């Protein structure tokens, strides 16, 4: 398994280091956090290929970290002679199998004795003169001239890798639609190949050759005869039509998988992903030691996703799986302990979660844990009415919504506050948690979650029990009863305002926050707003 | 347990490796090492014939083994900036024997000098603090070494490290009497164990419980007369077991003979022997398609004709003891022949060998 990933200068990674674990690694992060790039980098170092093509053919200036490139050209402009930008991707492995131990040595950036593989994109020594001339040219753009670069694929024993080492089989399942003109992308084709025995391959190849020969010698013969008659008018030698006999015309190019009666490329996108996962499972753990899955939730209905996740869990039994997702459901189901958080090209460390909390969120898999995980600043409230009042109070104070200020307000909707606070603490989020006092002193509630509280980082905000048990009496305490009542659709002779509000919590909140009237807010709400500023 | 099998010529040493590989567990990871290129090609061919395709062991030359497994993986720990770019087979450091550090081991293009390769391997292994051997033991379950007598100097220290690997078994076969090649001719390390004296080195490690020594003294190649002659080439102090021949074919001209130089053409006409000599300084003016002793190692011929050097002639006539190196060369030459060996000497009657004369001469006399 891969127990360390080191990336320097590749796309948005400047100095990236991560220590993945055995089995599942669920990569989570906002947009531009580098999730897909990380999968791409792993695949690149394991296979020497990008999208099924050799890295050298795909190399382009945008592989280089743009900040480092800008720094390089700025230094050049300043008269310095910095080293040309390079890319390094290293995968440190821990297997003690013979195939993997072959890759062992100290040729890595840590000079560590470990098996591993690396990709290094560096200036080719053969082109150092051309490169110097390019850099000296007056009209040169600030772009890395990749045509003078080489891609070196090596193992940690210092040996250049010419073909993919045994024991490093990888299946890459991306949710993107088929791009290959062959109807199936490279990785899927490779997996499909496992279904066909070498003897069967030979038989298909022969039949395919015969069929093409048959077309050439029969259907095309008559045409060629006719062309030959007119031949001298076309060219000195006879022009003729033959079936393509080149390697590109091998049977693999003409045989595409079908699902039911529908070609794979035309089947639903969700189904394609499901099939790719099934194919990866079908391969032996040695043929596929690593599985990379990109956003499995795309294009899948909830039930299909549930089935897919069960498969992924099986898949992870004896393989190392890297999976990116934007779905809290996927994360909760696969287990929060599997979470690997990425933020702007760096992995965030977080402490261990309790078994109980991991199980809790597996059960309550609908809860949006990703919002807790990804929020910059977080406000936890009990329910929708609390959420609405908080938002309105925040807007009154700052003139913009909490969301616009990078504050995510999450309604717990029955999820235990302690669990959510544990998760927030684990990922190191700043949290203001609001709750009703339910007739108890704030200290009573604070003691229950004391382990996760941290002054200035995670605090509880609770109303004074003297001003009511829940938010509604607390609101009435700081606002004039008649003024509030006027904003609510209560008949004049109906119940007292508080009683009606308690019975219609969400509706009363909606009416109040949508009104144009000035509202007062309980002190603990104001303190919470000040806390997350 | 590690084992060295000391075998006589023609005892199917290489075949014993092929058998062990093809008959053993097909999941065992095996590496087969030998010194000469011809040896490698031959081993590779025979292993591919004998083993299932998935179970063909890896065959590697000794120098490639040192480079790939002992030197390269941990070289940065020894010389941080130095990359390995192959082997410089014949060159020498430009500062000669006084070259130090990187310059002692690498030429300007990063090729390691063969001259000091074993020492470099030893140094790299030391710098790795055991990782070289640990890595090897995780890759291979069994390592076979053919023609182990060719390994000398620092290579013996490497052998010792290989013997000390916990999970990998080392199986060596060789014949110290055929010590005509040498991996490190200029290395003074462990000089006392060069050539036939390698026996003492094996005995030392047997004593340390690192090694079993087995003897294989049956030959399928040559007849008993040739066997007896070959046994006597070394002084009795070496205590080799007598060679037993399993080859009992009778051709009418079997055994070891002495002939006059004047009879050579007649002898060649009658028996078509392969002419051999120690080096081209012997019989320099004789126009025969000679091959040197060292070149024919591993080969089999029906008959050989040997032009001896002066010391060999003295051995044949006066029984003067041969130097070990000379004895080894002669042993190789003699043991190529299935049926007969003939020496060209000034006076056949002065040797203890059977003299041969062509019929017309005998009639004349």
Could you give a quick summary of the protein structure above?
By secondary structure, chain A is an alpha/beta fold. In chain A, 40% of the residues lie in helices and 18% in strands. Chain B is of the alpha/beta class and 365 residues long.
Describe this protein's structure.
The complex is a heterodimer of chains A (533) and B (365). With 533 residues, chain A is of the alpha/beta class. Chain A is built from 22 helices and 20 strands. In chain A, the strands form five sheets. In chain A, strands 1, 2, 6, 7, 8 and 9 form a six-stranded antiparallel beta sheet that branches. In chain A, strands 10-13-14-3-15-16 form a six-stranded mixed beta sheet, sandwiched between helices. Chain A starts with a strand and ends with a helix. Chain B is α/β, with parallel strands linked by helices and 365 residues long. The model of chain B has no long low-confidence stretch (mean pLDDT 92). Chain A binds chain B through residues 96-98, 101-102, 104-107, 111, 113, 156-159, and chain B through 29, 68, 72-77, 80, 83-84, 128, 131, 135, 138-140.
Per the principal axes of the C-alpha atoms, what is the gross shape of chain A?
elongated
Low-confidence blocks of residues of chain B: none
How would you characterize the largest beta sheet of chain B? 6 strands, parallel
Number of helices of chain B: 14
Distance between the termini of chain A: 43 Å
Number of strands of chain A: 20
Give the N-terminus to C-terminus distance of chain B in angstroms.
Answer: 63 Å
> Structural class of the helix and strand makeup of chain B?
alpha/beta
The total count of helices of chain A amounts to 22
Main interface pair?
Answer: A-B, 15 and 17 residues
Radius of gyration of chain A: 31 Å
Give the overall pLDDT of chain B as a whole number: 92
Looking at how many chains there are and whether they match, the oligomeric state comes to: heterodimer
What is the helical fraction of chain A, as a range of percent? 40-55%
Query: Spatial order of the strands in the main sheet of chain B?
Result: 3-2-6-7-1-8
Query: Shape of chain B, please?
Result: globular
Structural class of chain A: alpha/beta
Q: Main β-sheet of chain A, in a few words?
A: 6 strands, antiparallel
